[in-house]
Amino acid sequence: MSDQSTAITAEHFRYIAAHTTPEDDFLRALKRAATAAGIPSIWIAPEQASFMQILLRASAAHDVVEVGTLAGYSAIAMARALPASGKVRTIELDPARVAFAREWVARSDVAGKVEVIEGAGMDVLEGFAADSADAAFLDADKASYPLYLEECLRIVKRGGLILADNAFAFGQLFDASPTDREVPAIRAFNERIAKTERLDGVIVPIGDGLWVGVKR
Ligand code: DHB
Ligand code: MG
Predict the structure, then answer these.
(1) What span, in angstroms and rounded, lies between the C-alpha atoms of 68 and 18?
(2) Number of neighbouring beta carbons within 10 Å of residue 174
(3) What is the pTM of this model?
(4) Interior CA angle at 194 toward 192 and 200, to 5°?
């Protein structure tokens, strides 16, 4: 920790959550329905959604790419931060999650602004045109993050945002014997992105750690 930093505790996290615009009834209902449908409860925290919306608004983003839709929570949250003609293209491998997300997007206030694309992240990303997005959010299989990052550096315009979830490795970043098999991949990705000259980046201690980069 540098002298300029305050060590963040669980109390700070609770405080941050309590002092952030709360999530609405629709997203709360989406999470209940997703859990009932057997989808794992690994969506982003409401305060992370608020922060990502602020980043998208502040950068006047119009087109967003997401890898890893899950239930559609973050895609809907991000779409709300875009202008009326804006769009989120979100990619999901699991057909049941695709069906769930499409149903809830259709019922949402951003129905025309979110396209849920079924497929493997790399297969779909490779079909996206260069410089066709203002921001990207990685939230899928962690071992593939380096590949997704390469593709997103092609797809996102210069000055655009590249965000990646779970920089804190599900809370196991510093564990000597982590139980989650994706922890080493996250550690490796954190090392790599810090050295990527094509990005200016910072890890933001919100949710499970949000990596925020701007393409140079
Ligand atoms: C897991 C994945 C995520 O993207 C997340 O935010 C939390 C947990 C997981 O695979 O366990
Ligand atoms: Mg995640």
Answers:
(1) 27
(2) 10
(3) 0.97
(4) 130
